[in-house]
Each structure stands twice: as structure tokens, then as C-alpha cells.
Write a structure and sequence with these properties.
By secondary structure, the protein is of the alpha/beta class. It is about 40% helix and about 25% strand. The protein is built from eleven helices and 17 strands. α8 (about 395-410) links the parallel β13 and β14 (about 415).
């Protein structure tokens, strides 16, 4: 610590360090201890004048009875930045009313300040890095989904056309490959979301039985083709109606069921829902997915939940996949205050299990859904009775072609616009039931076009629906906030 006292003439009277001639007043007395003085340029009269004014002002306030607490930076003779935390306290003499002197204490806080500055800099770098990741993730999602939309859309159209058996089998192969590619893409985007700290749960009232129905509808065909029986069971304490993220819960179950089917040639896959504990309405639930497959060697169990790791990563491996499903499932379990694990014996099957927490809800809280049916047949586009007149706005000609053809096959009357300006012209000349609007377009984007259409004060403004490859939840919300009536990715 530096300690000193100052008299009413604002001069240092006592100190525990040497005085510095740089701060001498006319009487040759210092106004601060030497260590508190330092300029980048010792000949700079203006800086010295500012320094003097600063300290005299602080002393004046202290003599008025107001304790002063502040930080001060100086540049020492070696050119280093030194930071001090300074306290100036008024000292009253017993038996008198006035303040006779000031007691000054200065603590060297350079190390603390450097740490704070480094921390602030690291935080700024991390936040910038996170923003870059978010932006990259959003753009990658958009750029990859756009051509995928063209491929999958055209497959749907081909499936709905007249084909011979050989052509139909080729289309089925293309469909499966496209679905696999989309699945890998979703895994990579999910992993990126996790790394960017963007993975969030969307909690809503759901039915566990409905989730199992969906799961079985997705995998029953594959199980039957391998002569595998799929069964499920619920302990009676397990609540069927809960508040949870259905999509993410189904994603974990799908990952584990898909793995079980991949590594089982025949036998049985069972899903067991077990009740672990309850605190008020909050339940801890354990799900076990047991298979009678090939099993996993003990030494490989540890790497299963590491990114880009697979139990068999050799050139002779028999099973495909990215190895990301379990990593993503692990992160989703953590978000649900649970964990994930595996028990397995080579040649005797495996049991993957996970736990999650969820609050119980009432059956009437859960929205009624239409029956979930698997689309693992040929494609079929449903027709609608009423000839809906639709305007599709998109600068991408492939997207326009896909949307136009699918909508026409459904019985709609479709017009297209390849720019926002063309769309503006068309809505003034024609009336439409619906407008599908792309977001990312040159010159005038979808949000601006939507705004301009609504400013036209048309007699009837059709609902404007964002139809875009931007597919993140927060992006969806931002489009709705910007005035669009609905959204489809």
C-alpha cells in the first residue's frame, strides 16, 4: 500500500514512499507520493496540468467531507501501465468542527486490472466467435437445404408419375439416398448448434404413447423386413402426458432404435419406460432400448459418445452412419437434466438407456393430432377440390419449378415471380388466395416485398407465407415478427 496525508494547502505532509519532484508546487512540496506520478511524455505540460487539476479537485471534494474512491492509471519510467485503486478519507480532529487533513491510501491493482481486461477481451472474442458460428450455421443450413429441396421435390413428382417397375425401384433408391443425405445434414447442423451453444428445447404438452406410435410407424417396415419384433412397455408410475420437447425426445428414441435395428439381424427390440423418482409434478424417467444384436466390445463402449467416433471405423466396416447420433442424443439428455449410457455384451446384444426429467400434465392439455402414417411407400400427392390461386415468389428457378409442379398436381392454379418487383406488379393486376414468399432474394428480399405488398392497401391482402430454406426456430420467429402470416421451411 501507499499511504500519505495531505494538509489544507493540499500538500503531502507524511508518506511511506519517496516524494517526486515532478509534482512539486512552488514551495517544493509534493501533492502526491512518487509512485502515483507518471506520464507517457514527461515534458507534456498539458498532461501535467490535467494531472494537477484532477488531484486538487479530488482533494477539494474530500475536504468538503465526501470520501473519494477511484482508479487511476499511470505510465511508469519503464513505460508500463500501472493501475491503482485510491481511497481519500477526510480526517477530523477531535474537538474541532473542520477537516484538518486527508488520509490517502493507494493499492496497486495492476494484476487484477490485467486479469479483468483479459477476461473482457476473451469474452468479446468468444461472443464474436459465437456470432460467426451462428451466422455460418444459418447460411450452411440454407445453402445445403436449397438444392436438397430441389432433389427431394423432384423425386416426389417423379414418384407420382407413371413409371414401370424398374424406374420405380430406381426412384425408391434415389429417395432413400436423399433421406440418408438429409439425415446426415441434420446431424451435422445439430452438432454445430450444440457447439455454437444454440441448442434449445421447445417444451409443450405431449403424449408418450403418441411418440411411441410415431416411432413404430417410422421403423416398423424396417423391423419386419429383418424379421424383428418391436415391443414397448410402461411402468405404471410413468406419466403418459408430460411437458417435454417431442421432436428432441423422438430424436433420441429414433437414434437408439435405428442403431438397434442396424446391429440386429433377427430377434427383438424392446423399449421400456421406467419410473425413477418424483418431486411434486416433476418426474425422472428412464428409457431402455434393448436389442438382441451383435453387441459391442467393452473397449469400444467409451468412444461411443465422442463426436466423429464409431465403434468400427475401419476400412472393412459393415455399417454406415456419421457416428454423431449418440453425441447429439447425449447433449439432448443433458438439456433435459438427464444422462445416457450403454450396457453390452459382445454377441449377446446391447441396452442403451437414457434418463430425462419432465413435468406431468393433464390429458386435455395435449393437442389432438391426426393419425401419424409412415411415408415409406411410393410418393402420392393429394388433390384438393377447390382451385386455389397461388403466387410463388422465388429467385431460384429449381425451387420455382418444384413448388409450381407439386402445387399444380394438387389442383392449384399457380403463377410464379422470380423477383420481389415482379411479385409487386402481379398482386396489383391479379387476386391470389395465398402467396408463398422466399426470404433470400437479390435487390428486394422477401421481408421487404411482404412489407411493400401490405402497404399497397389492396382490397383483399392474401396471407403471405415464408417458404424458405432458413429453418432455425429463431429465424422462423423473426419472419413472423417482420409481418409474414406464416412460415414453412
Amino acid at each position: 500500500h501507499l499511504m500519505w496525508t495531505v494538509n489544507r494547502q493540499m500538500l503531502v505532509t507524511r508518506f511511506n514512499q519517496k516524494a517526486n519532484s515532478n509534482t512539486n508546487n512552488n514551495d517544493g512540496k509534493a501533492i502526491v507520493p512518487a509512485d502515483l506520478v507518471g506520464f507517457e511524455d514527461s515534458t507534456d505540460q498539458l498532461k501535467q496540468g490535467e494531472f494537477l487539476y484532477f488531484w486538487l479537485n479530488k482533494y477539494r471534494k474530500t475536504f468538503e467531507g465526501k470520501q473519494q474512491h477511484f482508479e487511476s492509471k499511470i505510465i511508469n519510467e519503464s513505460g508500463q501501465e500501472i493501475w491503482y485503486e485510491i481511497f481519500l478519507n477526510p480526517v477530523k480532529v477531535i474537538g474541532t468542527e473542520g477537516i484538518e487533513e486527508i488520509s490517502g491510501v493507494a493499492n496497486n491493482i495492476t494484476a487484477k486490472k490485467r486479469y479483468e481486461l483479459a477476461l473482457a477481451e476473451a469474452k468479446e472474442v468468444a461472443e464474436k466467435s459465437l456470432e460467426v458460428k451462428k451466422s455460418f450455421l444459418s447460411n450452411m443450413s440454407h445453402e445445403i437445404r436449397t438444392p436438397m429441396n430441389g432433389i427431394i421435390g423432384m423425386i416426389e413428382l417423379l414418384s407420382d408419375s407413371t413409371l414401370d417397375d424398374e424406374q420405380q425401384s430406381w426412384i425408391t433408391t434415389i429417395r432413400k439416398s436423399s433421406e440418408t443425405l438429409l439425415h446426415i445434414l441434420n446431424d451435422i447442423l445439430d452438432l454445430s448448434k450444440i457447439e455454437a451453444g444454440k441448442m434449445e428445447l421447445r417444451i409443450a404438452p405431449i403424449s408418450l404413447k403418441a411418440i411411441i406410435d410415431k416411432l413404430f410407424a417410422l421403423f416398423m417396415q424396417r423391423a419386419l423386413s429383418k424379421d424383428i419384433t418391436m415391443i414397448e412397455s410402461f411402468e405404471k408410475q410413468v406419466p403418459i402426458f408430460i411437458n417435454a420437447d417431442e421432436t428432441r425426445l423422438l430424436q433420441i428414441l429414433s437414434n437408439l432404435t435405428s442403431n438397434a435395428l442396424k446391429f440386429t439381424e433377427q430377434g427383438e427390440i424392446s423399449l421400456r419406460f421406467l419410473h425413477l423418482s418424483q418431486e411434486d409434478k416433476l418426474h425422472k424417467i428412464k428409457v431402455e432400448v434393448h436389442d438382441s444384436g451383435i453387441g459391442i466390445p467393452q473397449e469400444k463402449l467409451a468412444i461411443l459418445f465422442q463426436a466423429f467416433s464409431q465403434a468400427d471405423n475401419s476400412y472393412t466396416k459393415s455399417y454406415g452412419g456419421t457416428g454423431l447420433g449418440l453425441v447429439i442424443s447425449q447433449e439432448l439428455c443433458r438439456l433435459m437434466n438427464g444422462e445416457i449410457g450403454v450396457e453390452s455384451t459382445l454377441g449377446k446384444g446391447s441396452t442403451f438407456w437414457f434418463t430425462f426429467e419432465a413435468e406431468e400434465c393433464k390429458e386435455e392439455d395435449v393437442p389432438i393430432e391426426e393419425n401419424f402414417t409412415s411415408k415409406h411407400g411410393g410418393g402420392h400427392i393429394e388433390r384438393i377440390d377447390y382451385a386455389v390461386k397461388i403466387l410463388v415468389v422465388d429467385d431460384n428457378s429449381v425451387n420455382l419449378k418444384v413448388a409450381k409442379n407439386i402445387l399444380q398436381k394438387s389442383g392449384c392454379v399457380v403463377e410464379t415471380a422470380q423477383s420481389g418487383q415482379i411479385a409487386l406488379n402481379l398482386v396489383q393486376q391479379n387476386s391470389y388466395d395465398i402467396i408463398f414468399m422466399d426470404i433470400q432474394m437479390p435487390i428486394m428480399n422477401g421481408l421487404t416485398t411482404t412489407l411493400k405488398i401490405k402497404e399497397l392497401n389492396l382490397l383483399i391482402v392474401p396471407p403471405i407465407i415464408a417458404m424458405t430454406a432458413f429453418s432455425m426456430q429463431e429465424e422462423r420467429q423473426s419472419f413472423l415478427d417482420a409481418g409474414m402470416d406464416d412460415y414453412v421451411s
